[in-house]
């Protein structure tokens, strides 16, 4: 699957990651979808690198699982960093 396929998949899994992790995101919907794209790319890269598996086609369940996992992990990291930085800026005022 090419980079364009991962981008399309990333937009979808970004929305799915938002459903898995409901709540307010500091950046809104657009940032969440972009994090989904980055997470899908990261999931695909790590899957090939460490699992040594062919990820298959766009409609393969492994591909979607790795994309969703990557998006959820990046969304959690983003929320944690935004929370930590937001707490520091409030306490410095």
Set out the fold topology.
Layout: H1 3-20, H2 28-51, H3 61-92
Helix pairs in contact: 1-2, 1-3, 2-3
In short:
80% of the residues lie in helices and 0% in strands. It has 93 residues and is an all-alpha fold. The N and C termini lie far apart (48 Å).
Question: Strand percentage, roughly?
Answer: under 5%
* Structural class by secondary-structure content: mainly alpha
Report the count of strand segments: 0
Largest sheet: number of strands, sense, barrel closure: none
Q: Separation of termini?
A: 48 Å
Instruction: Show unreliable segments.
Output: none
Task: Please provide the ordered H/E string of secondary-structure elements.
Answer: HHH
Mean pLDDT: 79
Tally of DSSP helical segments: 3
Cα radius of gyration in angstroms: 15 Å
Which geometry do the CA atoms define?
Answer: elongated
Approximate helicity band: over 70%
Structure characterization notes:
The protein is mainly alpha-helical. Helix content is 80%, strand content 0%.
Observed structural traits:
93 residues; mainly alpha; 3 helices
